[in-house]
Amino acid sequence: MKNEQENTDMAVLEAIDRLSKQPAREVAHLVLDHISIFILGATAKKGMTAADIAASMAISTASCYKIVAELERLGLMTRCGSCRTTGKGKANVYISVVQSLNLEMKDDKVRLCLMLKNGNTLQFNRDLNAGVGSHAMARKPDQTG
Q1: What pairing do the DSSP bridges indicate for beta strands 77-84 and 132-138?
Q2: Burial of 5 by CB count in 10 Å (0-12 exposed, 13-18 middle, 19+ buried)?
Q3: What is the pTM assigned to this prediction?
Q4: What is the pLDDT of residues 91-134, one digit of tens each?
């Protein structure tokens, strides 16, 4: 059990590293999709297979796999293991690297803040008048002093 948790923790950290290298606009666009939000929320605490996610959302498994693959490619989720299916095969289990998400609209500005499982935050800011967006990765505060 401890080895499984260590593998999951390592996979999450690798995905967060991949996420930090992605184009901000692409990440923000995908995160704000209502199906992506549900998938990230459903897998925030525990890993799930694409079939389980699809069943909980009443969407096709094929559609779910496409979205999960895109979330994984960008580093927003990662594979954390596998489990037996009802047949003889195995299915990948996926988990979100996002701990929480906050979206704020105020004074012609939009701010999206993702709190990641390693304590870092990823912020996307957009001035609706200027049409220009920015993003920044913030590290968790130093806990030594």
Answers
A1: unpaired
A2: exposed
A3: 0.82
A4: 999 999 999 999 999 988 889 999 999 999 999 888 888 755 56
Locate the DSSP E strands across the chain: 77-84, 90-96, 98-106, 109-116, 121-127, 132-138
Which domains are delineated in the chain?
A: 2-138 (1.10.10.10)
Neighbours of 93 (CB within 10 A): 19
Q: Is 38 exposed, middle or buried (0-12, 13-18, 19+ CB in 10 A)?
A: middle
Residue 19 · residue 97 · CB < 8 Å: yes
Residue 86 class from Cβ within 10 Å (0-12 exposed, 13-18 middle, 19+ buried)? exposed
